Amino acid sequence: MLEHVAISRAIIESYMKELLNSLRLDVAIVGAGPSGMVAAYYLAKGGAKVAIFEKKLSIGGGIWGGGMGFNKVVVQEEAREILDEFGITYEEFEPGLYVADAIEVATTIASKTVKAGAKIFNMVEVEDLVVKEGRVSGVVVNWTPVRMTGLHVDPLTVEAKFVIDSTGHGAQITQHLLRRGLIEKVPGEGPMWAEMGERLTVEHTKEVFPGLYVTGMAANAVAGAPRMGPIFGGMFLSGRKAAMEILQKLRA
Ligand code: 48F
């Protein structure tokens, strides 16, 4: 017999266990777009305790819509090995340019990231950072509906040795440091230039403040680098770069 209370308890107890287990992390990632999920995958594979906080119900960020809603993901040669790492099917469109199904990309990356050991909390918004003694050391989280409904409900806090701002075009997390005068500027992304944007995304993937990394479009926004439109290799490479640097620091 299916007992309603047993179903409720299964949900509450297993969720609470994971939430309690995630209160002290090696890495807290904000945003489950391509760069955030790829970072989480490599971090989890490298043995780090990592969780992603995603404000929407669905993971994937900009992956689902490909370009203008045509749900295809284009990747250049440099990032092909990441498609291979995830076992994603793709076709060579022309030499050095590969195209994959956006739905397969989003679901496969999400699935492998979770199976690698990263926890994704969806519907949880990061509304601020913890900064202690000149270092980012955690995130301030709340249910997304709290902000949407304008309810006055205080948030909770998660400690992390490193935080990654993977929030995309607005670099929303780094903006919290800007408005406190803790960093000088977040110029925002420049106009479209695919080749330069892709290169600079990876180049500007770095620790922008002690304890805070930026990836993907957030890295572009913080550096004032060009947007690149619907090509995703730079997002994947950026996520992997941040993960590898952080793993090295965690092991030091
Ligand atoms: O925008 P998004 O996909 O970030 P990305 O990894 O990739 C960009 C590409 O999708 C594409 C592109 C290049 O091809 O230009 O746009 O840089 O994903 C960002 C995720 O962060 C979530 C947001 O809902 C999205 O899923 N997010 C944003 N702010 C918050 C957040 C927040 N404060 N708390 C939690 N999640």
Automatic annotation (TrEMBL):
EC numbers for this chain: 2.4.2.59
Binding site for glycine: 227
Pfam family name, one: Thi4
Cofactors required: Fe(2+)
Keywords: Iron, Metal-binding, NAD, Thiamine biosynthesis, Transferase
Pathway, per record: Cofactor biosynthesis; thiamine diphosphate biosynthesis
Enzyme class: transferase
InterPro entries, sorted: FAD/NAD-bd_sf, Thi4_fam, Thi4_prok
Alphabetical list of Gene3D superfamilies matching this protein: FAD/NAD(P)-binding domain
Chain residues that bind NAD(+): 35, 54-55, 62, 126, 152-154, 217
Binding-site positions, Fe cation: 154, 169
UniProt-recorded name of the protein: Thiamine thiazole synthase
Lineage, broadest ranks: Archaea, Methanobacteriati, Methanobacteriota, Thermococci, Thermococcales
GN (gene name): thi4
